[in-house]
Structure prediction request, 486 residues.
Amino acid sequence: MMDTRFKTNDMIGDYLVEGFIGVGGMGEVYKGVHRRLNRAAAIKVLNSGSLNKSLITRFNNEARVHSSLHHPNIATIYDFQEVEGRLCIFMEFVGGECLEDLVKKRFFAVDEALKVFHSVVEAVSFAHSKGIIHRDIKAQNIKLTESGVPKLLDFGIAKDDVSSNLTKTGGIIGTPSYLAPEQLRGVKASPSTEIWSLGVLLYEMLAGQRPFQATTLMELCVKIESAEFRPVMECNAAVPPAVSNIVKRCLDKNPNARYKTAADLARDVMQVLESQYGLIPDSKLREAGSFETQATASAGAKETVLSDEIEYAGSAASNSGSHPPQKASGNNRFWWTLFAGTAGFLILIGVIGVGLWVGSVIGTTEAPQENRASDQTTPEKEPDPSPKIDTDATRLPVADTTQQIAVDPSESSGTASIKIKIDVIGGSAEVIRDGNTVGKTPYELSATLGSVVRLTLKREGYLDKDVEVEAMGRKSVFTYTMQEEK
Prediction:
């Protein structure tokens, strides 16, 4: 007996169904909204007609594994429960488009591809740090939100350290085009095989096609086993050697020659983004904001981090010391504050006094030449009282970030500007600024750092789209979707 498909305005648990999204590997997927929280969700509903033990195990495994992952580039799971005899997972609804569709529709600039890729690698690295192997990394399982944030989806076949073997007897779980050579020989999925899959993904984004092309599954397996592919630089002349080398290392036939960890891969991608494109990945900017909050907490106290920040930042933050920071008692804090305030006041008075004395000396007759030379000796530099930063961690002060963002100093005003790229999904659109057409997408412009640029996007057959672009340096490429006229 077939299950009755849920209809619009039906209830699935506490969620009101807004529409049908599609059919997944384990059942149907709906969009719903929580009736009290007004929160959108994607709802996976397992087909009751296929309630075999393996499928139920995979379903429960996804719910358990996915719920343990909290990362800005991984779709969040809200709940999983049984509704009317059918198993359901309620997870974050990710708008935007599937990366696979975007690769087919439009060209990715190298810097844009690297920023998206870096976020995906960070998500994979985070999952690996939890002992979780995704096992189906591919463009189809990644979505870009309308604001350009990549989200890793579908942990239905993910496996952690305690999961039972979910592969079919004699079969392989995963998508063939992204499988590493050793997986074709029956070797289990591992962080190394995920590095290979990430290499296929990066190649696909840069070249517009996968590195191994074939018309039959057998031919595909032979090509993957050979690990021979056309260099990505030949497919896209804009790809620099450093990026081509990253792809080559990911797709090395020898697993030991690949990146040891996803974190190592992310580090190399970040280095290229900073050194060759003057861009800072979103994850590093998030950590910069975290550092600013921590650094202003107390000038004399040891740096402390919230538990969820430790979880995301990785082991570097947690390894900074073997003992947890000690909480100061209220009485000690009072005396320390009083002492620090008094010391600061006395130092301020001293600085003012020295300044007045220097001013009075400058205003009088010049000292003899030999005396002046002795007066100009450089005072010994005092030790920097600022807290030391663990260079192994990927944190940096916010004050430094503006120096590394792609900025162009303005000779006339002394302000800084950044390069911004505007694009739309599914074709080109006119870009209108202040009532004048200034170009077509993909369109690049310079904007003063910190400013807001207001534009209108026009395309025949589509509704005009008014957008506000914040030139904050956190993002250099803005991609929008346009709604068709009805």
User: Anything to note?
Assistant: The longest strand covers residues 15-23. The longest helix spans residues 330-363.
